[in-house]
Design a protein that fits this description.
CATH architecture: Roll
Shape: globular
Number of strands: 7
Number of helices: 3
CATH class: Mainly Beta
Strand content: 25-35%
Strand order of the largest sheet: 2-1-6-7
Order of helices and strands: HEHEEEEEEH
Largest sheet: 4 strands, antiparallel
Number of domains: 1
């Protein structure tokens, strides 16, 4: 866990407001971690070992491009899964694009790293949570990603009802 704090002698009720945007700088640096990880997957052509990623992002953030039906279903925030069925992963300095299937329908998503609010690799319990724009309202609860997974990996209940919804519980640590 990364912790940044002031020394005790610098802390008081009258700590001056910083003229250096430390929080923004740290958020950008941590988002660069997501970019580096995705770039390595792009360069190697696949995920190593059991690694897979849950990436949550603001669907209406500047630069986000997703199909209209997904925007209607996820008007604020969406979680995607990069695991078995993804293609055409392209990573740029400030964004990534990836092909995924939603309910059997292929789609290409373009997501700026600035829109990402959470990144989680459950294979190694690595997670990052990013601050959303302070001007935004808190996110409402919503259904999580509906990426397709290989039939052999669905649990029996999901096979019976045809469901492929992935539920992820992200907890925020402050």
């Amino acid at each position: 866990m990364l912790t940044c704090s002031l020394p005790p002698e610098a802390m008081s009720d009258e700590t001056p407001e910083s003229l250096i945007p430390y929080d923004e700088i740290v958020q950008d640096a941590l988002r660069a971690v997501v970019g580096r990880v995705l770039r390595e997957v792009e360069q190697t052509g696949g995920l190593p070992g059991e690694h897979h990623f849950y990436i949550t992002f603001k669907t209406r953030a500047p630069g986000v491009s997703i199909p209209k039906h997904l925007l209607e279903k996820f008007p604020d925030e969406m979680t995607i899964v990069i695991q078995h069925r993804f293609w055409d992963l392209k990573v740029e300095d400030d964004s990534f694009a990836v092909g995924l299937s939603f309910g059997g329908v292929p789609a290409t998503l373009h997501v700026p790293f600035a829109a990402v609010t959470q990144f989680h690799d459950p294979a190694v319990e690595f997670a990052l949570t990013f601050h959303a724009d302070a001007a935004e309202e808190p996110a409402e609860e919503h259904e999580e990603a509906e990426n397709d997974v290989p039939d052999g990996e669905r649990d029996e209940a999901a096979k019976e009802d045809g469901s492929n919804v992935v539920n992820v519980d992200f907890t925020r640590k402050k």
